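REQUEST
  id: r-88c1
  op: predict_structure
  target: RmlC-like cupin
  payload:
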Amino acid sequence: MSTTSAPATTTAFHGLPVIPPSENLTSTAPRKIAQSFLAIEQSEGAGARVRRSVGTPKLRNFSPFLMLDHFTVVPGAGFPDHPHRGQETITYLLEGAIDHEDFTGNAGTIQAGDLQFMTAGRGIVHAEMPKQDKDGKASIGMQLWVDLPKALKSCEPRYRDLRAKEIPQVTADGAKVQVKIISGQSYGTDSVKELAYTPVWFLDFTVKPGGTVKQPLPKGWNAFAYTLAGNIIVSSNRISRPIPQYHNVVFEKEGDSVEISVEESAESEARFILVAGLPLDQPIVQYGPFVVTSREEVMQAMRDYQTHSNGFERAYNWESEIGKTME
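RESPONSE
  id: r-88c1
  status: 200
  body:
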């Protein structure tokens, strides 16, 4: 998780386009479900609780996705100083506020509805902590780890805040469907550009009883949906399957769209995120926060971090201020 600051946004964008050029997006062939499973809550970091669905034995190496955590952190808990190399993180805050600080001098806060896109590149050390509010309320959000193309793994670190007010919103299906277009395209509306280096679509849907989402996706991209609230129905080829809260739905690659609805008789609306990404044709070798393409590169990353070199120079004697709230 992370937030951004003014200096970070000056770094040049080296990523691939989030919307494939000249691709005709349709919703005529909904994808089938490859698998669906409950994200079980577990401990993570220092006192945090997470429901991890990507990056578990049920779903590993689902390129370009490395990990998805639905996290809950309270003041006094969090993610104190830690390194990253070779990947990006997308943090979407649903409730509360999260402070961020890194060894380049960047610091900031994201609030409910905000996101941060962090490209770790050759190396970053940072801390992510819930804002120390007196009311003690939890901060809740989603954090997605995305692999970087091998050619970009040695790039300079980059941050990009995306504030709630910047995110386009569209209403469809007689006002029964609302979508926040965080990254990508939905119902003819494009997101803000130049977010993640690896192309990722990230859509936040709220669907009222009787509503149906018909969402095109780029062909060949891996895709999944995660249910934040309520129950949804995924349909393909005249087969419909109910999916309850806190489940990850992994879609097959074949097909050009997904079709998701909420029963007319449902007691409440449903909310889910739909995520799709460009698969990367490269090995994934991960050791904790280091994501590279070979065992030798893992060993090099560990040496670089321990010796404060090759991207980790500024880690020498660095400590975040916000991480001290754990003491």
